[in-house]
Amino acid sequence: MLIDIAPTEGFSVIKLVHTAVSLTFLVITVWLFTRSFKGYFKGKPFLRTDKLLSFGFIISLYTQLIFGLILFSNLGSGVGYNYWGIADSVKVVSKRLWPVEHIVLMLFALFIANLGLIISINTKSDKNKHKNILVYYSIALGLIIFSLSAIYLF
Is 83 left (phi over 0), alpha (psi -120 to 50) or beta? Predict the structure, then answer.
């Protein structure tokens, strides 16, 4: 028995999952940054929880990448572009490259976060592990925030 899902319904489900993973990513990020700040500035040890949070950060980014690529595919190609009038057409033209820019910036953010994870794991000092996580994951988070704000600001 096959499940028959209309393209617009499939798009909505995938977008909902992508949003849920993004919210999970936000919770992990806040928790990870809080622990890393305490670890770096108060000299706390780099525990297994910190390592698991770092992996959770990366795993949620990969999960978002997968669902984002599904959203970028033709699954939602007919959704949201049934505008009427010249003013609405200008909106579509001005934002037509946002999905491509978003994916490219997300790939860079994922690469930088992976680099930070590898460097932090190979570092001997606990303080430097926290520092590497703060530096590389902050850069990745900055790219993510810039990419998300680009659709609303530009």
Answer: beta
Q: How many CA atoms lie within 13 A of 129 on its CB side?
A: 21
Domain that holds residue 104: 7-74+85-153
Give the span between the Cα atoms of 64 and 66, in whole angstroms: 5
Question: Do 28 and 63 contact (CB within 8 A), yes or no?
Answer: no
139: Cα within 13 Å, side-chain hemisphere: 16
Kindly state whether residue 80 falls inside one of the protein's structural domains. no
Q: Structurally, how many domains does the chain consist of?
A: 1
pLDDT per position as a tens digit, 8-29: 566 778 888 888 998 999 999 9
| Confidence (pTM) | 0.79
30 in a domain, yes or no? yes
